[in-house]
Structure formats: structure tokens, C-alpha cells
Specification:
Number of strands: 6
Number of helices: 6
Low-confidence stretches: 47-51
Order of helices and strands: EHEHEHEHEEHH
Shape: globular
Length: 169
């Protein structure tokens, strides 16, 4: 599982649900592994106030926490994870290089379906209530085939794999 909260508070699940997400995975060490590799800007405001990721998560045996190494930006984690969990992010496209289940977190109750800022949320189910995270993770995996086509199409529209050099006009 790759949890990737966005750094911009208006688009992020972190301030509202972030600790709930981490607590859920801490309570299920035999069921889930979690990669938490946040965006480098996620804790900027927190760090100015000397806040840190709570210590209780640092010793969770099923957690891999990366607070800013090169691996958090070089596709290491997007390639390793079996489920993408998070908000809007360009990293979801990297994750879709091999289409897999996605689960998006609507921590703000936003009306996202027609909003282009949330176009990625059509790549998997959208969780509206954090108390249903366990069920939503199971459904994201079970229902992945219904999202695989749109994931493949979005990836193909985003990346070009041809022998032709790209041209910029």
C-alpha cells in the first residue's frame, strides 16, 4: 500500500484523515504493509511549528516511512506498492505504469465527479467516510477490473512510448 497525501491542504487528506489512515494500518500489521512517502512539501508548515510525525508510527513493523529520500520521487514506491491510496497526485500516473487498484480519499466531501482537479479519481473508488477504510480497501482490490480500462487509457494519454523524438512547438 502506498499512501501519498497531497501537500496542498485544499487537496489533501492529511490534515483531516492522515493520522486516522496511519492508525488503521498500525492496527492491522498482519494484514497490510504501508509505504508512507509523503510529498516533500507536506510537512513544511508543521516543521515551522516544530511538529513531527508522531513517534508511535516509527516503530510499526508493517510501515516503511520515507520523509524525503530520493526514493520518494524516483518511482521506487509507486512500482513497489500493490494499492495506491491518496489524493490527487501526478504519482498516480507513475503507479499506473502497471495498472493496479487505487483508492482515493475524499476527506473534504468535495463534489469531485465533474471537477477536472479530481480527474484521477475516476481510476478507482473514492472513500467518503474514513471509518470504512478497511471495507474500501477490500472493494478497491475486488473491483479493480472495472477501473483497469480507464487506468490504461489515462496512462497511454499521459506517456508516449515511441521511437519518435518528441517535439515541442
Amino acid at each position: 500500500m502506498f499512501y501519498n497525501p497531497h501537500f496542498e491542504s485544499s487537496l489533501s487528506s492529511w490534515r483531516t484523515w492522515g493520522l486516522d489512515v496511519l492508525d488503521f494500518f498500525a492496527r492491522h500489521p498482519d494484514q497490510y504493509n504501508l509505504i508512507f512517502a509523503r510529498h516533500v512539501k507536506l510537512f513544511e508548515q508543521w516543521l515551522r511549528r516544530r511538529a513531527r510525525l508522531p513517534r508511535r508510527f516509527r516503530s510499526c513493523p508493517n510501515f516503511h516511512i520515507d520523509l524525503g529520500s530520493p526514493a520518494s520521487a524516483d518511482m521506487t514506491y509507486t512500482r513497489a506498492a500493490d494499492i495506491y491510496l491518496g489524493d490527487v497526485s501526478s504519482q498516480v500516473y507513475e503507479f499506473l505504469s502497471d495498472p493496479r487498484p487505487c483508492l482515493f480519499l475524499n476527506a473534504h466531501g468535495v463534489d469531485w465527479k465533474q471537477d477536472p482537479n479530481y480527474a484521477q479519481w475516476h481510476f478507482g473508488p473514492v472513500l467518503e467516510n474514513i471509518s470504512r477504510l478497511g471495507f474500501a480497501l477490500e472493494r478497491a482490490t475486488a473491483d479493480h477490473t472495472s477501473f483497469k480500462g480507464i487506468q490504461e487509457s489515462a496512462f497511454a494519454d499521459t506517456f508516449s512510448f515511441t521511437e519518435e523524438p518528441s517535439t515541442v512547438t
